[in-house]
Amino acid sequence: MNALGLFAALACLIGSIGNTANASDPQLLEPTLHLVHRGSALPEIALTLDACGGSVDLRILDALIRNGIPATVFVTARWLRRNPEAFARLHANPDLFEIENHGRDHVPAVDRPVTVFGLAAAGSLPAIEMEVSGGAAAILAAGGQAPHWFRGATARYSVTAIAAIRGMGYRIAGYSLNGDGGASLSAEETANRIAKARDGDVILAHLNQPGRTAGAGVVAGLLRLRARGVRFVRLSDAAEAGSDGTTE
Predict the structure, then answer these.
(1) Sign of CA dihedral 120, 53, 244, 18
(2) Nearest CA to 47 among 245, 244, 241, 237?
(3) Burial environment of residue 231 by CB neighbours within 10 A (0 to 12, 13 to 18, 19 or more)
């Protein structure tokens, strides 16, 4: 793995580990997101995949297309630059994939000059707006549609950042189940976590770490859910309830 790939792996990893950010800095929020139950006879679960940087995990992408499992994919501008062929495959399957905004440079949406899990935050509201608008511009330039959801690096936000991003017209995508621990878990651990998802869960996993064993676990866990009769939906296919004013 080259230096850029290693940085991408570490950036995604630190963005998805536990809940320690709130414990260490009570001014940062880690929003949750759940699907609103619609009375369906089948359990409904949303799969969301982050593509922070680096490459594409074809084990996951191929399995989703082969098995008809939809997902909401959050991409950064830098991932788009490195993976035009993967984006083309996502874009060619609009019935399965919606492409949403993970930012321009994958910096935390915090308007103070702090670090979040070792990543330097945007540091100001103008910088946050640049991160969000830059991510959207990259999606449009690649041929995608205007995004409606945003998920920031580390999935931690300042209160004022949430208000600013909402003011730009975005809903902010939290999650309820961390499926792969930032692609750091073993295949078995990842599969077991994902297989335990319940009706209304929003799963977070990663699409950009083909060198990690977690990717095989993502596929295995999803197939176990599918065998259980779970109906997978994209965020645009359902109603959601997010904490901390992220969706209302």
Answers:
(1) negative
(2) 237
(3) middle
Tens-digit pLDDT profile for residues 186-211 = 999 999 999 999 999 999 999 999 99
d(CA 40, CA 62): 28
Give the pTM: 0.90
Q: Could you read off the pLDDT of 149-160 as tens digits, one per residue?
A: 999 999 999 999
- Token pair, residue 127, equals 């910088």
Helix (H) or strand (E) holding 177: strand 177-178
Q: Which two tokens stand for residue 219?
A: 């596929």
Alpha carbon 19 to its chain centroid, in Å, reads 16
Compute how many other C-beta atoms are within 10 angstroms of the C-beta atom of residue 90: 25
Indicate the helix (H) or strand (E) that contains 172: strand 171-172
3-state secondary structure of 188: helix
In 101-112, which positions are buried (b, 16+ CB within 10 angstroms) versus exposed (e)?
Answer: bbbbbbbbbbbb
CA distance 210 to 206: 10
Measured CA to CA, the distance from residue 208 to residue 56 in angstroms comes to: 4
Buried b (16+ CB within 10 A) or exposed e, 3-30: eebeebbbbbbbbbeeeebeeeeeebbb
Phi then psi for 227, rounded to 5 degrees? -65, -25
Determine the Cα–Cα distance for residues 73 and 194; give it in Å rounded to an integer. Answer: 17
Q: Please state the separation of Cα 238 from the chain's center in Å.
A: 17
- Phi, psi torsion values for 226, nearest 5 degrees: -60, -40
Residue 247 and residue 228: Cα distance in Å, rounded?
Answer: 29
191: three-class secondary structure by DSSP = helix
